[in-house]
Every structure is written in C-alpha cells, then in structure tokens.
Design a protein that fits this description.
268 residues; two-stranded antiparallel sheet; single chain; 17% strand; Alpha-Beta Plaits; 34% helix; alpha+beta; 12 helices; globular
Length: 268
C-alpha cells in the first residue's frame, strides 16, 4: 500500500525548503539526488498542448485523444485527490483539489486516503475539467511519483499531470531539466510552433517560455530550435499570432509509445 495522506502532508509542509535546495543545487549531493528523480531513465515525457486553436489534420490524433487512448488502455486509473505542487505552494489561481492521474497496475498502490480509482468515464471527466481550466497535460514516466505516492512497481506506472505555470515543478524547473537531461522531455513528433502574421514584438511571450527559447529579433518574436511544444508562449500572446500545428502525416501517438512507454506496461 502507498504512502498515507499524513506522510505526504508532512512532506508538503517542508515544500518551502525547495527554495534553498535550488540555491544549493550546484552541490554534489543535490545534483545526485536530482539525478535519481530526473535522469533519462527516471523521467520521460511530453507536454500535450490542448489549445482549441491548434491546427490538426483529420488523420492525426487530437491532443485529447492521445490522453484518452492511455486512459482507456490502462488496467487501472487512480485520480489523486490533490495536486502536490499546487498544495505545497498554496496556489491561488487553480484548484488544489485537481490532482494528477496515475495509470496502470502500479496506481493500485495509492492509499485510499490519497486518491480514488476511476472508470474511463470518470477519468475523462477529470481530464476535461483540467483542460477547461487551461491546465497543461503532461504524459510521462516519472520516478518522483513512485517516491511521493509509495508505488511498488515503477514499470507498471504512467502519469498524466495537469500543470499550471505558477506552481508546477516540472514547468518551473524545465530549463534546468532539459539542460541536464536533454532527452527526458521531448516535443511531440510533428508538432510545430511558429510566429505568424500580426506579431508586433510586444515581448510578452519571451518570459513565458519556461526554457528561455523565445526571443525578439528585428522587432518580432522568434521561436528557437529547442522548443518543447508546451504552448506557453501561444497562451499569453495578446494577438493570438503564435501558431501551433500538427503536420500532416505526423504520428504523435506512435511517438509517445516509442519514447514514454519504453519499459512501461500499463495494461497488465
């Protein structure tokens, strides 16, 4: 059985210490600890942009469909009753009771006081609530969830996080993560992000990028080659001129299976 609610609550009360841990992150013990959680073996994932303005060919899975495929295939679905990131940081912009979703046999280890098992319909209703609030889904194989929730078999676990830009550890630390482990977080195959007509060079999108990949060049926004396709820049553009597209012939579902599911079984 997984960790009790009081154990997780105790850890969340210490959340403020992460500020000091970040300052000490250059010290060897902290690098080693971070590596156990965020290395290529322990972390593999992709953000799933869900903005309605995304241009998607009819032959390509829509972002919500990608999530639904995993939810349907999983032998078990457990919805966590709270978001550790938003709870730990006292989020005031998004609900703290909207937690992540764990898929696969490993999710059965979650303590009943921490999360609840869900049907496919209940799980997708949870997904739709998160998407309706503008939270950004991330599908990944995250060792930190094994540690936090006390999961026994990491190979039987897949996570769907619903990230906010203000509290999510993955989003706030994304730049450090991809610099240290460049293969851990990868843009979906066939997904493109580009600046279209109408850009005035206001610069709002520049600080919005969690990895510092957006800049201004000759008075216009420029998306760099390291883009992860999270859509943060598009979500803040006041003129809606940053375009996110799925290219014809793209196979994002197969791409996710190849990368995220390597060594993971959520069906049995």
């Amino acid at each position: 059985m997984g960790r009790k609610k009081w154990q997780i609550d105790t850890a969340l009360r210490l959340w403020r210490l992460t500020h000091w841990a970040k300052r000490l992150g250059g010290a060897t013990p902290f690098r080693q600890a971070a590596g156990l959680i965020a290395s290529d073996r322990a972390f593999r994932g992709s953000f799933i942009p869900v903005d309605e303005s995304i241009e998607i060919p009819t032959s390509v899975f829509a972002p919500r469909q990608l999530i639904e495929e995993y939810v349907t295939r999983a032998c078990n679905r457990t919805i966590i009753d709270f978001c550790p990131c938003r709870t730990g940081r006292g989020c005031s912009d998004y609900p703290t009771d909207l937690g992540c979703m764990l898929l696969g046999k490993g999710s059965m280890d979650v303590d009943p006081g921490v999360g609840r098992r869900a049907t496919v319909e209940e799980a997708m209703a949870h997904v739709d609530r998160a998407l309706g609030l503008g939270l950004l889904p991330l599908i990944g194989h995250l060792r930190v969830d094994k540690v936090v929730f006390g999961i026994g078999d990491f190979s039987k676990l897949l996570t769907v996080c619903f990230c906010c830009r203000c509290c999510c550890v993955l989003r706030s630390e994304m730049g450090n993560l991809v610099r240290a482990y460049p293969d851990s977080l990868v843009r979906l195959e066939g997904l493109t992000v580009a600046v279209g007509d109408g850009c005035t060079g206001c610069g709002v999108c520049v600080p919005a990028c969690p990895i510092g990949n957006v800049s201004l060049s000759r008075g216009l926004a420029r998306i760099g080659g390291a883009c992860l396709g999270c859509g943060a820049c598009a979500s803040v553009c006041p003129r809606d001129c940053i375009e996110i597209r799925m290219e014809p012939g793209a196979a994002p579902a197969e791409d996710l299976r190849r990368r995220v599911e390597s060594g993971v079984d959520i069906e049995g």
